[in-house]
Amino acid sequence: LVFVLGGSVDAQCPLAQRPPQVLRHVVLFQFNEGTNAEDIRKIEQGFCALPGKIDAIIDFEWGTDISSEHLSDGFTHCFVVTFRDEAGRAEYLPHAEHEAFAALLRPHLAKALVVDYWTKP
User: Fold this and answer.
1) CA torsion, points 22, 74, 70, 38, in degrees to nearest 10?
2) I need a surface site. Which of 23, 34, 84, 99 has the fewest CB within 10 A?
């Protein structure tokens, strides 16, 4: 009998195979004033395509700010990329597909905030 609290188990990483902790890479974007909706959509699609192109990514999720606290400081988009370990992150950062995505993003990016952390079991 397996209980899953606060999340779901996906086919890529069944619960039984998940490590006791994983490395989360949290990325927040603030776009340049005047960046249009079509460019933002292309950026969203570009980031969402990375898990299918980079094997080191074991989980991925994203969303846009809906906080009622109004403390986002202009950051509108949050992406969470999950790796098994630091080696996965080290593979991801210089990966050609990640670099191509960064080139798509760069002209529209006002500011980014990145936080990496180990989950606690």
Assistant:
1) -90
2) 34
